[in-house]
TrEMBL record:
Signal peptide range: none
Protein's recorded name: UDP-N-acetylglucosamine 2-epimerase (non-hydrolyzing)
Native organism taxonomy: Bacteria, Bacillati, Bacillota, Negativicutes, Selenomonadales
Residues of the UDP-N-acetylglucosamine 2-epimerase domain: 33-368
EC numbers for this chain: 5.1.3.14
The family this protein is said to belong to: Belongs to the UDP-N-acetylglucosamine 2-epimerase family.
Keyword annotations: Isomerase
Length: 391
């Protein structure tokens, strides 16, 4: 039997991080799989960082990023470029990841070519059309075009079942971000950025902060940053490390509220490797990111989510993260609680992470091989181990 051709499509740093383990795993079966990697470069510089880290050389680089690009621009350029790649390669299946505009465009382009679609990290939902925007609808629209749904958790699987997806098309794999994280964190890692060389020295507790969501631009972010300013003023053993998103609307508010504040370290966005190791050396994480809600708990770091909704309710149920919104008083109170209540901190830091065990990419590739008749049986699906009671 001829090898199957599997094409992976991604365009942003988060996608690249989570697809890198899949790309690497696909390469382990040269007699069964012909892998093709196509990147849109929806985010150019941050994507390149991950490609370099994981030593991935794309077969196709559409390089679509432009100054001031809109969602319309990204969608149209990605569709046009992927159309040409699909006509040339004619893959058996196209794998897309998560919830970006590249994800939706890749799935739609594959559909127009009547090519099977595999959705990695399928089934995440907030059930709010515009929160997060445009990610929630990217997920749902991609799901409607998908043939193989690789759900990271049982909750994601249940979302898909509730939308009418057949059980035989859904496979619970865990999240590939845990695969990537486990391969990247190193206790001996040394930061190249001099601003990070001394973090945590003298017993200081590091609070890692990231914000970038469109729905938080403006006053919501201002409220968060004012709360952070209050925290460092109150606790002299706390320092904040804030890799600031390059969006000028984010940077403007950060500069106004946190610029020049003692023990607030404002740095440019980090490559994935230093960022993963920064999570590992943090005490608490405050973020509006989706992926960090999965990554930080794997390293025993409590996460306070600066959003009103989350498409990752498993973390809420498990107790690894807490949804706190952006109100100044609430952000201050919840952060202070983790700084002062050791029992609450321990509870969050030691809760079972429901998102993966580092073997998700293997499950995804083995599932594809099984569905195409190249393996006799599917892999065992992922599930967070049930808690045990010591006697």
């Amino acid at each position: 039997m001829s090898p199957i051709k599997v094409m992976t499509v991604f365009g942003t740093r988060p996608e690249a991080i989570k697809m890198a383990p899949v790309v690497i795993e696909l390469g382990k079966y040269p007699e069964l799989i012909t892998p093709v990697v196509a990147v849109t470069a929806q985010h150019r510089e941050m994507l390149d960082q991950v490609l370099h880290l994981f030593r991935i050389q794309p077969h196709y680089d559409l390089d679509i990023m432009s100054q001031g690009q809109t969602l319309f621009d990204i969608t149209c350029r990605a569709m046009h470029g992927l159309n040409e790649v699909l006509m040339r390669e004619r893959p058996d299946i196209v794998l897309v990841h998560g919830d970006t505009t590249t994800t939706f465009a890749g799935a739609l382009a594959a559909f127009y070519h009547q090519t099977a679609v595999g959705h990695v990290e399928a089934g995440l939902r907030t059930h709010h059309k515009y929160s997060p925007f445009p990610e929630e609808m990217n997920r749902k629209l991609t799901g409607a075009l998908t043939d193989l749904h690789f759900a990271p958790t049982a909750t994601a699987r249940d979302n898909l079942l509730g939308e009418g997806v057949g059980a035989d098309a859904i496979f619970v794999t865990g999240n590939t971000v845990i695969d990537a994280l486990m391969a990247t964190v190193n206790k001996e890692y040394r930061f190249a950025d001099g601003a990070l060389a001394g973090i945590g020295e003298g017993g200081r507790r590091v609070i890692l902060v990231t914000t970038h969501r469109r729905e938080n631009l403006g006053e919501p972010m201002r409220q968060v940053y004012q709360a952070l300013r209050d925290i460092v003023a109150r606790y002299d053993d706390v320092e904040i490390v804030f890799p600031v998103h390059k969006n000028p609307l984010v940077r403007q508010v950060v500069s106004a509220e946190l610029g020049g504040i003692e023990r607030v370290i404002l740095i440019d966005p980090l490559d994935y490797q230093p960022f993963a190791n920064l999570i590992a050396r943090s005490h608490i994480v405050l973020t509006d990111s989706g992926g960090i809600q999965e990554e930080a708990p794997s390293l025993g770091k409590p996460v306070l989510v600066l959003r009103d909704t989350t498409e990752r309710p498993e973390a809420i149920a498990a107790g690894t993260v807490k949804l706190i919104g952006t109100d100044r008083e609430r952000v201050y109170a919840e952060t202070e609680r983790l700084l002062t209540d050791s029992a609450e901190y321990h509870r969050m830091a030691t809760a079972c992470n429901p998102y993966g065990d580092g073997k998700a990419a293997g499950r995804i590739v083995e599932t594809i091989l099984w569905r195409y008749g190249l393996l006799n049986s599917p892999p065992q699906q992922f599930g967070c181990p049930a808690p045990t009671t010591e006697k």
